[in-house]
Amino acid sequence: MSNLLVNITLIIIMLGIGMSLSFNDFKNIFIFPKNIFIGFCSQILLLPLLAFSIAFLAPIEPLQKLGIVLIAFCPVGTTSNILIHLFKGNTALSISMTIVNSILSPFIIPIFISIATSLFCSKAENVNISFWESIIHIFFMVILPAFCGVLLNHFFPKIVNSCQKILKFLLPLLLLVVFSIKIFIGDDNSICSPITLHEAIIVAPFVILLNILGMYGGFFISKIFCLEKPSQLTVAIETGLQNTALALSISAILTGGCIIEKPILVYAMTTFFTAVIFLLIHSGLKLKDIFK
After folding, report:
1. Are 218 and 236 in contact (CB under 8 A)?
2. Cβ atoms of residues 194 and 264 within 8 Å
3. Over the chain (292 residues), what is each successive 10-residue block's mean pLDDT?
């Protein structure tokens, strides 16, 4: 039930985000593909490299190491799209990266899982992720509501413009609802009992380090390749904020899933706040500015 409430809320949010975009925003992304290429390389190369390095050095159980690297393999979800929109990043780039990575993830994740399980566990698991299931999920959660929002903006610009002031208050409120559900009610994808404080303290430094290094890694790579500031913020968040719902789903089909999911749960509970802090530091905005 909690996942259903979260999904409905996220769909409404993506509709609101789409209402702030035009077709030209997406056309420019693919006419000038440098931004999306840099972002994709940051996600698919930099983040897994960081995750493997942290897992090798972390003095934790092998299955917890697998949980850390599993986080890095799962492409970003809608939360990153929302934060980028609120903090005036490149929203069209954010949505485009979400779509591209979600389409490619069924092919990429099993390869990374095979490598990770052979390195950290005594027995590697066969992981099969449905390509069409991933496509259908991202279509209904991201593409369709955002596209409907763009259509509304295209055909009814005056009505949409009059709604923007309301949306600037409504979207942050809905985002707060989403994370309240995730933190206080829980996640239907979780296969085990809630994580204890002791377990959280053990893995928290390593998953937070992965999150922070991922954001700053994406941020500085974007600077090196001279991306504009909104795109720098977008690549940073898209690199550092991963899809924990997918990671939990995969952990459920792996031997030792109850241990594997512990780092994922801690990551889910902490990284939203670190991402907001990162954006407050580097966007030049204050919390009150996202309502303007």
Report:
1. yes
2. no
3. 66 75 70 82 89 91 86 75 84 80 72 77 52 64 79 84 73 64 56 71 93 94 92 91 73 68 85 90 75 58
Residue spans of alpha helices (H) in the chain? 2-18, 23-31, 34-41, 47-57, 62-73, 78-86, 91-120, 131-138, 144-155, 157-180, 197-224, 229-240, 244-251, 257-282
CA distance 208 to 267: 7
Within 10 Å of residue 32's Cβ, how many Cβ atoms?
Answer: 10
- Cα 114 from chain centre: 22
Strand, coil or helix: 243: coil
User: What burial letters (b/e) apply to 7-27, b meaning 16+ CB within 10 Å?
Assistant: bebbbebbbbbbbbbeeebbe
Q: Tell me the CA end-to-end span of the chain in Å, nearest whole number.
A: 34
Question: What is the pTM for the complete model shown?
Answer: 0.77
Three-state secondary structure call for residue 113: helix
